[in-house]
Design a protein that fits this description.
By secondary structure, this protein is of the alpha/beta class. It is 40% helix and 21% strand.
Length: 281
């Protein structure tokens, strides 16, 4: 694996080493890697000839500065994991390299998708996501962009971004990887104690309960009971547990039994914000 910190050096390497007809796969991360990230590396290696991973903790997508400061950084471990996974290239830029002209950027027209769920509780978050993804895509110019389904809404935002900027990249979304307990793998899990990791499984269990009990008709009572389950497990608060249209994320208040739906949740446990989702059909 070759590590680059400078954009120009990375781009020159990609130009000189990419063979004719060879696809480039790109896995953007913020580090603190886990098996979920590594599964994306493995999939990229299967579906492309060259795999690039980036590690960059993007300051513009954190609406809470304290959350940015607490985000786990494990660079040496991450590099070792990527080497073991067979990643070809690691891009490890400084903030000044990603944003050479500062942190300002134009506004991306994302519609209502950026004002609901995560967008409602993290204002400006998805503009920051689009800002960094636009920049990274312009640097790497990949054919395949790989992301995990755990960030369901973010995947939808990035798909919209690809259309807005006319990117050639195809978005490939991989299923959420989970611990044996059912807890969705996340870099934020590193901030949880052992007992809290056990409590944290309540989010997934509540989503499973919703899936088992959903039926045509009103959904409010079901989501209310799911929130009660999460709070009873020891969570501090829930931002949302919602049943939504799988394609638009519009809230489903009355399910017709046919529309494809997904349940999404966000909740705090000892000041660590955890998200998860579960498609139903």
């Amino acid at each position: 694996m070759i590590l680059f910190k400078k954009t120009t050096e990375l781009q020159q390497h990609l130009i000189t080493t990419t063979k004719s007809g060879q696809l480039t796969g790109f896995v953007p991360t913020m580090g603190a890697l886990h098996e979920g990230h590594l599964s994306l590396i493995s999939r990229s290696k299967r579906e492309s000839g060259l795999t690039v991973c980036s590690i960059f903790v993007n300051p513009t997508q954190f609406n809470d500065p304290k959350d940015f400061e607490k985000y786990p950084v494990t660079i040496e471990k991450d590099i070792l994991l990527l080497e073991q996974a067979g990643c070809d290239v690691l891009f490890l830029p400084a903030v000044s390299e990603v944003y050479p002209d500062g942190l300002t950027a134009g506004h991306f027209e994302l519609g209502t998708l950026e004002t609901i769920l995560e967008g409602q509780y993290r204002p400006g978050h998805f503009q920051g996501v689009c800002q960094v993804m636009h920049r990274l895509l312009s640097i790497v110019n990949p054919d395949i962009l790989l992301m995990g389904q755990k960030d369901y809404q973010q995947c939808m935002i990035v798909q919209k971004l690809l259309t807005l900027i006319g990117s050639k990249a195809t978005l490939v979304i991989s299923p959420t990887l989970r611990e044996a307990s059912g807890l969705a793998m996340s870099s934020r899990n590193m901030r949880l104690s052992g007992p809290d990791k056990e409590k944290a499984t309540a989010i997934y269990h509540s989503l499973q309960w919703l899936k088992a009990n959903i039926h045509p008709g009103p959904t409010a009572l079901l989501t209310s009971k799911a929130r009660e389950q999460v709070m009873a497990a020891g969570f501090d608060k829930t931002d949302y547990i919602s049943i939504c249209d799988a394609a638009t994320l519009a809230t489903i208040e009355h399910w017709d039994g046919r529309a494809k739906i997904v349940a999404l949740a966000a909740a705090f446990l000892n000041n660590v914000r955890l998200i998860d989702n579960l498609p139903f059909n």
